[in-house]
Amino acid sequence: MDKVKKGGGIVVLFFKEKKKNGQIISKKTPSSVVEEHSKNKISSSLDETVHFMKGIFGDSNDFVIKHFEVFGQFHAAMFYFSDLTDQTVINNDILKPLMYIPNHLLQRKIVLNDLKDVLINETLYHSQAKLDDCLDRLVDFVLRGETVIAIEGIAEGIHIGTRKLEKRAVNQPETEQVIMGPREGFIENIATNLALLRYRLPTPDFCVKKMEIGRLTKSKVAICYIKGIADNKVINEVEKRLSEIDIDVIMDAGYLEQFIEDNPFSPFPQVHSTERPDKAVANLAEGRVAILVDGSPFALMVPVVFSQFYQTVEDYSTRFLMGSFVRLSRMLALVFSLIFPSLYVSFISFNPELLPTEFAVAVAGGRAGIPFPAVVEVLAMEIAMEVLREATVRLPKQVGGALSIVGVLVIGEAAVNAGLASPITVVVIALTTIGSFATPAYVAAFALRMLRFSIIVLAGIFGLYGVVIGVIFIFNHMLSLKSFGVPYMAPVSPENYQGMKDVVIRSPLWWMPKRPTFLHQENVARLREKRNKALEHNKIGNDQREEGTSGGPKRNHNSSSDDNLN
Amino acid sequence: MEDLREITTLQATTILISTIIGVGVLPLPLFAVRAGETGAPLVTLFGIGIAAIGLFIITKLGIRHPSKTIITYSEEILGKWLGKVCSIFVIIFFTILTALAAREFGTVVTTSVLIETPLDVTVIVMLVLAAISARNNINVFAYIHNFYVPIILAPVLIVVAVSLKNANILYLRPLIGSDFKEMFFGALTVAALFQGSFIMTLIIPAMKQPKKAMKASIWAILISGGLYLLLVIATVAVFGTEEIKQLFWPTLELARTTSLPGNILQRLDIVFLSVWVTAVFTTIFASYYLTIYSIKQFFRLQDHKMLSYFILPFVYILAMLPEDIFQMYEIIRYVGRIGLSITILYPLFLLILDVLKSKRRKHSESKQV
After folding, report:
1. Transmembrane stretches, by residue range (chain B) (predicted)?
2. How far apart are CA A184 and CA A192, in angstroms?
């Protein structure tokens, strides 16, 4: 830890030890001083406390020590970081009542022994005013934006929650946009994120466990799950893996993901991250565990299965026919993005006889002036496309438009006119790229994008045989993956009847009365045991209209909680 | 390996199906027609019957010893050394079977799809794929088979369904062939195509409910046998017996004569063969896995992962031994017949001995009482 902190030696006066042995211990970073004091209590002498705090924070100019008199008679000092705290709260809710004896206390004689209770219970206008006597914890509170008050003669410090941070508003997440569905997204602040989850899950079963990871950042990490639905084994495993992490900084949820995933060498993502609270809640309700980190707008969800990466929240919030159709087209796009260029290569270079004659002639005509074999042509175009994509991602919007026009010209028209690529290659590359954009999860699309290149090479060597070998290899790898004990290709293989209803098509919600059991939940009932009346309305059909009244009251009778499928 | 005993009955069934259906499907109608002329379907049916008996014996043995494979319970039944000797034969046989399947498919690929690619390359690619996949544990083994079954069944069913418009029922008559001795040997050859079902001995110790293994066996033999029968009937009905004898892989020719409506793809046989790589892979994968798993148990090793690469060169050399396609099929027929004694007669012998032993044990127990 000495290495990571700034090396400048800070002479810290170790007053307790100084008193005992008269030694001065020097050249320590503040954090290690705090560590050494982790067992020590705050002293009742105000001077000592001020001295200690100065030793710890003295180098920082934004650290404030303010001396004042409580009720005009007790010496006290207040410690806080001026930029982390809310000045109004400090002035009005802390300093004012402390310096200015409140009316109800005017008649009382306050002795030192009662002082702390009087302050906490009767004086301070703040719900988060608490007492603590550990030095290291008090230092930590100051660092987290609280205000600590030490009073001469009292061996305890009062810490008051005065933290005030700038945070951005809850916006629609950029990475997961929907046409129909909630528009909220997580932000960087973990408290807001947890609030977003809590507001959708007002149940005591929703549990949040907190821990701190990162020696320097001390990032707050929250493990969220629904008790009674999530598998205890998974929860324990998540806690175990998280507690084993020892790193200096955690900047984002992605840092954690890399430490807790099962197979770091696999191209496939084994943790699902989302920016959407509604998605996180839906996953929690299926029995998954969500991990949130302070400072990251992403929630990590484990365990995952592959089918999750092409599902979106919209599949569920729209009608099931729409959802299923969209999902089918998305799966097609997924297949396109993986093997379309390699199929093209193998057809052109190995088995042109497979193509219908007219088309084969057209292809041959288009390729007439091209000097390279198909595989080189496709690879070159794919690489150009990747570069173009990478270039557009980080460009400012004003420049991006210009670049995409240039890119379209270069990769489209110009390459064909210059005889570098055949028009059909351009079509194939375009379809592939569009296909990879249609995959909702960026990380999963990326895995297929990487694997596409190796399959193109295989296709160039072995033709269709190579494509199939490559695909088998990828599938075998996916089948052997596990995420927190759940096979990656569940519910397809190992098979799971309930889960299958939600893989290729999105079955109507009333077809899926149980949670998919491959997550080993303790409780699988999703719909109420009482039969869902919504279905019967459909079946009654025209009779309903004739009877007139029968439909309406029935629905009204069904209270909203019964209709609520989640 | 912490979670053994996870294989469900459905998974056991699919493992059997995808293991049985392999490269043997390609020359199957030829074998059947050579033996029984127009009685080819009957020959196939007989073959399926023989194979079914073999599979039921091995399943029965497995149910009697639900936590052991044939390598371990043979030592119990036959005594340690005799059991070991027999196990060596089993291991050698399945090494050869793996090699021959890889070779046969390599030959098919190089003659019909990748004409310029050397045979070695296609064989070694297939074997490497099997070796890498065989490093997984038995549950993943089950997942892989389970996943590919639809891909294996679909192309055959499509080809059969589409080709039926060219069928001529007259080619199938008379239903009963002429030479019964020849038909019997033909049935043995067909039964030899089912030898992959020996994998059942490996699955039962990993099954959730070993008692249900028999159900899995019955379903597997019904589905894979039904598919074989369907294929033979369709091929004979389309080509007639005389033409089939001129073809090496009648099934492939059947795919070639069919075309999808709308003429999207001109030739179906190459697509068929490409998808069929999956079926061949699962078969080779299963016998490869059986081999290394048996070796692991034979030497009582902890792990089979290293073995996977270790035996790869041996399998490859064995695969390249046959000089040409004729010699290869000669060897395949020969090995298949010998194999039947290993996969059917040997387990039968074990079963009889086992039953007698347990009866005697019961007898002595009742005497003691």
Report:
1. 12-33, 39-61, 81-101, 113-134, 146-164, 184-204, 216-239, 270-294, 306-322, 334-356
2. 11
The answer to whether residues B16 and B220 touch, using CB atoms and an 8 Å cutoff, is yes
- Dist CA B210 CA A48 (whole Å): 74
The Cβ-side half-sphere exposure at A431, using a 13 Å CA radius, reads 19
Domain ranges of chain B: 9-358
In the three-class reduction of DSSP (H, G, I as helix; E, B as strand; rest coil), residue A302 is classed as strand
- A203 band by pLDDT with thresholds 50, 70 and 90: very high
pLDDT (0 to 100) of residue A517: 76
Contacts of A479 in chain B (CB under 8 A): 140, 143-144, 147
Sign of CA pseudo-dihedral B172, B174, B176, B179:
negative
Tokens (6 digits) for A225: 């799950």
Q: Is the bond leading into B41 cis (omega within 30 degrees of zero)?
A: no
State how far the Cα of A560 lies from the Cα of A74, in Å rounded to an integer: 59
| Consecutive 10-residue averages of pLDDT for chain B (369 residues) | 72 94 89 87 92 93 90 88 91 93 91 83 92 91 93 88 85 78 89 90 90 93 93 91 88 83 74 86 94 91 86 93 89 88 91 90 78
Nearest-CA distance from B255 to chain A in Å?
13
Token code pair at residue A67: 């001396």
d(CA A80, CA A371): 72
Contact assessment for residue A24 and residue A13, using Cβ atoms and an 8 Å cutoff: yes
Q: Give A-chain residues touching B286 at CB under 8 angstroms.
A: none
**CB contact B243 to A (< 8 Å):** no
Say how far apart CA A448 and CA A445 lie, in whole Å.
5
Give the distance from residue A306's alpha carbon to the nearest chain B alpha carbon, in angstroms.
14
pLDDT in tens, A167-194: 888 988 888 888 888 889 999 999 999 9
CB A166 within 8 A of CB A177: no
To the nearest 10 degrees (0 to 180), the angle between helices A464-480 and B119-133 is 10
Question: What are the φ/ψ torsions at residue B275 (nearest 5 degrees)?
Answer: -65, -30
- A238-295 pLDDT, tens digit per residue, is 999 999 999 999 999 999 999 999 999 999 999 999 999 999 999 999 889 999 999 9
Whether ipTM tops 0.90, in short, is yes
Is B100 touching A (CB cutoff 8 A)? Answer: no
Nearest to B162 by CA among B268, B67, B248, B25: B268
**Cα separation, B135 vs B141, whole angstroms:** 9
Contact between B144 and A476 using a beta-carbon 8 Å cutoff: yes
A–B interface: beta-carbon pairs under 8 A:
93
CB contact under 8 A, B270 and A355: no
* Nearest by Cα to B41 from B181, B154, B173, B221: B173
Q: What is the mean pLDDT of residues A339-368?
A: 87
Q: Read off the DSSP letter of residue A275.
A: S
User: Does pLDDT of A488 surpass 90?
Assistant: yes
Residues 6+ apart with CB under 8 A from A23: A14, A17
**What percent of chain A clears pLDDT 90, i.e. is strictly above it?**
31
The CATH class that applies to domain B9-358 reads mainly alpha
B118 touches A: beta carbon within 8 Å: no
User: By the 8 A CB rule, do B219 and B10 touch?
Assistant: no
Q: Which residue in B135, B147, B207 has the most chain A C-beta atoms within 10 A of its own C-beta, making it the best mutation to test that interface?
A: B147
